């Protein structure tokens, strides 16, 4: 009974959502094939900032082509769009800014531990 109910709830609520999300990656952008939409802009940190933060933090990349191929392809298309390129900060400037934040936070942590 519980198993049957859980299966029914899963099928009714989550399968349509996962199918809708999967179909969203078939388009060039979340806003459609040719237009960037609000979801693209909201997710832009994945496309541009995340890689810089991973590099500054010295962590293993969270998004890889092997694990998230559709999301990685979207991120490349988004960051490669000419209009988007004009709006995003340069990667080296982001790296310098996040490196400065890292040093500041490390200094704060060190001073609190003394």
UniProtKB/TrEMBL annotation:
Its EC number is 2.5.1.18. Keywords: Cytoplasm, Transferase. It catalyses: RX + glutathione = an S-substituted glutathione + a halide anion + H(+). It is found in: Cytoplasm, Cytosol. Its main location: cytoplasm. GO terms for biological process: glutathione metabolic process. Residues 1-101 form the GST C-terminal domain. GO terms for cellular component: cytosol. GO terms for molecular function: glutathione transferase activity. Belongs to the GST superfamily. PANTHER family: GLUTATHIONE S-TRANSFERASE, GST, SUPERFAMILY, GST DOMAIN CONTAINING, GLUTATHIONE TRANSFERASE. This is Glutathione S-transferase.
